[in-house]
Amino acid sequence: MNLLGKRILLIVSGGIAAYKALELVRLLRGAGCGVTCVLSRAAGHFVTPLSLQALSESRVYTDLFSLTDESEMGHIQLSRAADLLVVAPASADLLARMATGLADDLAATVLLATDKPVLVAPAMNVRMWQHPATVANMATLAARGVQVVGPDEGAMACNEFGPGRLAEPPAILAAITALLAPAPGPLAGKHALVTSGPTHEPIDPVRYIANRSSGRQGNAIAAALAALGARVTLVRGPVTVPDPAGVTVVRVETAQQMLDACLDALPADIAVCAAAVADWRVASAASGKIKKSPGAPPPMLDLVPNPDILALLSAPRPDRPRLVVGFAAETDALDENAAAKRLRKGCDWIVANDVSPATGIMGGEDNTVHLVTAAGIEDWPRLPKTEVAQRLAARIAATLA
Ligand code: C5P
Questions:
Q1: CA 361/CA 340 separation, integer angstroms
Q2: Strand 369-373 vs strand 349-354: parallel, antiparallel, or unpaired?
Q3: What beta strand segments (E) does 283-365 contain?
Q4: Where do the structural domains in the chain lie, given as residue ranges?
Q5: Measured from the CA of 275, which atom of ligand 1 is nearest?
Q6: What CA–CA distance (Å, rounded) separates 158 from 126?
């Protein structure tokens, strides 16, 4: 596990535990990391920029409106010039500002502007940690992919006892190592191709054919495969869910673009086609907006089938991925349709899910799936999509082992 040369942007917020940030900087420097520190508005009351600067051997940033800082390194650049942003200690106030998307000091602004992974190490009074506002803020941040280390439980500076103590610097260093230099997982050295989200098939420059896919399941599968060490290429249609960290994302709009991106990404050991690809596209999309004319009948759309990406990836070819997994969203006769689809598409496994409106599953957070393989059909319980993804990734790893 090697952090040599990794760049950490350490954001220190106000709190009695801020003194431990000094020890964290020392550990990170010892591990070979470059460390740049940003102090929140309140942090300067607890730890001095001079101490952080001496230990990090690097300029410390505190002021959002500093002309000197902006001319040397603008706050946007600062937020992106690191491999990881670490907030330690993360006060209740800064976590709330992160959850709300405020940008009212330099610390909050770089956290809002960054495109890099973020690790927070909360530290606060136990009542503040357990307050419903903080609980909700932490849930919001976790849903956005923010990683958390701690807090620990124990005696606090305010003479109370409970969870809220900043994780010890060695534990924060271990969490940083797990994110930036993880131990090789069972899929290390394997390349996984994942498709996710809907496709948009243009009718004219402003209208398109689409479906209700959120991209949550496919993105979660990409993240789960990456967590097991795979190099992941995620080819995803237009979605609003965040891209998972640590995977190569190729953004596409149409089925044809998705197919091209998939073929470009080959060779791959694993392909998981979780995208809800539109079955048809308009034969030739209009170059200008189709106008309504009073009294005229609505336009007829001449549809042609889209390429079947799953079937093409499954077909025998020299670079066919060893394991190809498709999805089958069905509203009835789930198992029979899924088993027939596995044979028809030529893929190895089908993850079948019931998307009849009564399940409320399409676009939601949970999924109830059946895994259809050559050996038979397994029923999995209703699970959050992240857990479906982890189970599937573990099965893939076991099969390729
Ligand atoms: O045929 P159907 O759309 O039900 O098949 C679903 C499976 O096929 C999914 O895995 C989906 O990603 C894949 N598919 C595809 N390209 C298409 C249509 C579906 O890859 N054009």
A1: 22
A2: antiparallel
A3: 303-305, 323-330, 349-354
A4: 7-180, 191-400
A5: 12
A6: 9
Nearest ligand 1 atom to alpha carbon 306: 21
- CA neighbor of 360 nearest in space, from 331, 320, 401, 335: 331
DSSP letters, 55-77, are HHTS-EE--TT-HHHHHHS-HHH
Query: From the CA of 142, how far away is ligand 1's center (Å)?
Result: 31
Residue with the smallest CA separation from ligand 1 atom 17 is: 308
Kindly give the distance from the C-alpha atom of residue 320 to the centroid of ligand 1, in angstroms, as a whole number.
17
Looking at the domain that runs over 7-180, which CATH code has it been given?
A: 3.40.50.1950
Please report, in tens digits, the pLDDT of each residue of the chain (401 residues total). 589 999 999 999 999 999 999 999 999 999 999 999 999 989 999 999 999 999 999 999 998 777 667 666 677 888 889 999 999 999 999 999 999 999 999 999 999 999 999 999 999 999 999 999 999 999 999 888 899 998 988 877 777 888 899 999 999 998 999 899 877 899 999 999 999 999 999 999 999 999 989 899 999 999 999 989 999 999 999 998 878 877 888 999 999 999 999 999 999 999 999 999 999 999 999 999 999 889 989 999 999 999 999 999 999 999 999 999 999 988 888 899 999 999 999 999 999 988 777 666 666 678 889 999 999 999 999 898 899 999 999 999 999 99
Q: Are 194 and 232 within 8 A, CB to CB?
A: yes
Which residue puts its alpha carbon closest to atom 7 of ligand 1?
Answer: 327
274 CA → ligand 1 middle, Å: 8
Same fold, 7-180 and 191-400: yes
- Dmax of the chain from CA atoms? 78
The packing angle between helices 49-56 and 20-30, to 10°, is: 10
Q: Which of 218, 230, 204 is nearest to 325 (CA)?
A: 218
In CATH, the number for domain 191-400 is 3.40.50.10300
Residues with Cβ within 8 Å of residue 266, at least 6 apart in sequence: 193, 319, 321
Which residues participate in catalysis according to the annotation?
Answer: 158
Question: Which are the contacts of 58, defined by CB distance < 8 A and separation ≥ 6?
Answer: 34, 35, 36, 37
Q: Could you give the CA distance from residue 211 to residue 19 in angstroms, rounded to a whole number?
A: 52
